[in-house]
Amino acid sequence: MILRNKKKGLLAGKRALSSQKRPKVLKPLRARQLIRRFHVLLKYKSQLTKKLEKIWKCNIESDPAKYIKERNHRLFELFEQARLHTIETLLVNKSPPETVINTDSLQLDEICQELGRIEGEIEKRGGLEVYQAASVQGQSSQRGGDSSKKLVEWLKELGYNKKNAVALEIGCLNSRNLISTCGLFSKVVKIDLHSQEPEILEQDLMERPLPKSAAEQFDLISCSLVVNFVPYPHLRGQMMRRIIHFLKPYSQKPYLFFVLPLPCVINSRYFDEDRLSELMGALGFECIRHHKSQKLAYYLYQWERMVSDKLKFPKKELHKGTKRNNFCIIMS
Ligand SMILES: C[S@@+](CC[C@H](N)C(=O)[O-])C[C@H]1O[C@@H](n2cnc3c(N)ncnc32)[C@H](O)[C@@H]1O
């Protein structure tokens, strides 16, 4: 049974009734497997949606089902059949259906069916809530705690003691992360697409009203493992641009704490640390601290300069190799 929520942007989409239950605690291996499977599904969904956008010459963003339904009843039926079939199959058989890796030759019918299958599997696995629960567990079991530990370590090193400093944590999974408990901020606003606690506001940054005054801006924004979660490179670029509006004026040198999975900067065909520095430099940021762990790349930036609204940052092939990923951030 499906509930369609009324939310917009990245919050849009379907939710299975079963996914509304509180996710159970997962074993570390199971959590890692789930995170990996969600990454495959989200990436595949993004490839197929892009193909659909090309065919229909429109911007679908995160809710292909809605567009298919609006455009073509027959295709939506194919989508629904595939979705329901996948849910039923997974109920009796634990292994996921084959994921078509090469999407080049798929026709419109097949694209809609594949999208239905992905939607079905995401729902059956409990939706984004379960992915988040697995990520929360990942925070503790895989990398020894939340990433804001690094942030707080750096801020202490820098002697950060701004009076009444306020911070925004985008993509917050836990209201007791060190950023909220370290005492360096008088207030930490915490937002996430799917809030798991009353202290976390359920909000898409892309829909958060822009500040009308400095009182609604922040001295520090934490954006840890969020940009890689955004499915499309151009939306990632839009997110980077939007973040700036929520920072205090650059004359006050506000901070941005930014974390990406390591493969985004060491193993992408279209992105690496030099490209990241170019992008951040173009946005007016200066990197003042960076660190790589086995899995993550951490950066602390200070915002120093105004940015042109017309800033462009295209996709460029930087490294060849079939084993590389396609992570990139685009501004057009
Ligand atoms: C992989 S989790 C990372 C969470 C945590 N910050 C960390 O470092 O472990 C990514 C989170 O970002 C959230 N997210 C993605 N896009 C977002 C957006 N546009 N606005 C708010 N939250 C977003 C997702 O809901 C998800 O919970």
TrEMBL record:
<comment type="similarity">
    <text>Belongs to the BMT2 family.</text>
</comment>
<dbReference type="InterPro" id="IPR029063">
    <property type="entry name" value="SAM-dependent_MTases_sf"/>
</dbReference>
<keyword id="KW-0539">Nucleus</keyword>
<dbReference type="Pfam" id="PF11968">
    <property type="entry name" value="Bmt2"/>
</dbReference>
<feature type="binding site">
    <location>
        <position position="171"/>
    </location>
    <ligand>
        <name>S-adenosyl-L-methionine</name>
    </ligand>
</feature>
<keyword id="KW-0808">Transferase</keyword>
<keyword id="KW-0949">S-adenosyl-L-methionine</keyword>
<comment type="function">
    <text>S-adenosyl-L-methionine-dependent methyltransferase that specifically methylates the N(1) position of an adenine present in helix 65 in 25S rRNA.</text>
</comment>
<dbReference type="InterPro" id="IPR021867">
    <property type="entry name" value="Bmt2/SAMTOR"/>
</dbReference>
<keyword id="KW-0489">Methyltransferase</keyword>
<feature type="binding site">
    <location>
        <position position="192"/>
    </location>
    <ligand>
        <name>S-adenosyl-L-methionine</name>
    </ligand>
</feature>
<protein>
    <recommendedName>
        <fullName>25S rRNA adenine-N(1) methyltransferase</fullName>
        <ecNumber>2.1.1.-</ecNumber>
    </recommendedName>
</protein>
